[in-house]
Amino acid sequence: MTQPADSSSPADADALRTLLRHQASTVTVVTAPGAPAVGFTATSFTSVSLEPPIVSFCLNLGSSSWPTVSRSRYVGVHLLARQQQELARTFATSGIDRFAAPTRWRTGPEQVPLLEDTLAFLLCRVVDRVTVGDHAIVLAEPELLRHADVGSPLLYHRGRYAGLAEHVEPPARRAA
């Protein structure tokens, strides 16, 4: 595999941020109960373990959501559908009531705010928080899951929201 001659740079925060924009990520919204409830858009959600089932997401320690998430026993993780770009933008915007209309949500088990019409959601019990640099890695065990049988995820790539191209089956090979 060859590398372009101009692709190397010192591995500082700006260079890492630029590089990571090349990685397409599923867009999620994490919610936590509180007074008031909090929620934020995240692209750092991942599966950590299947036995036991553990997932993770990362959150900046300076985030307005961190104080609530740092104390929450439960969180909701919502995988957004391709058409939910506006919902992703709402939960990525600071200084607004993210749960105000037109956001559609309800209070779920353990008082966790659950967003309506997402591609999937997980109600998770937080099992650990690990501080690394300016972020916390939140490890959580899913206790309740729901997912749609149709639809495609909203992705984030190169600073923009994107979706998957429609799947096209390759033409059948002809017998020789």
TrEMBL record:
Pfam families: Flavin_Reduct. Its EC number is 1.-.-.-. One of its GO terms (biological process) is pyrimidine nucleobase catabolic process. Residues 20-163 form the Flavin reductase like domain. SUPFAM superfamilies: FMN-binding split barrel (SSF50475). Keywords: Oxidoreductase. It comes from the Bacteria. SMART domains: Flavin_Reduct (SM00903). One of its GO terms (molecular function) is riboflavin reductase (NADPH) activity. PANTHER family: FLAVIN REDUCTASE, FMN REDUCTASE (NADH) RUTF. This is Flavin reductase family protein. The lineage of its organism: Bacteria, Bacillati, Actinomycetota, Actinomycetes, Micromonosporales.
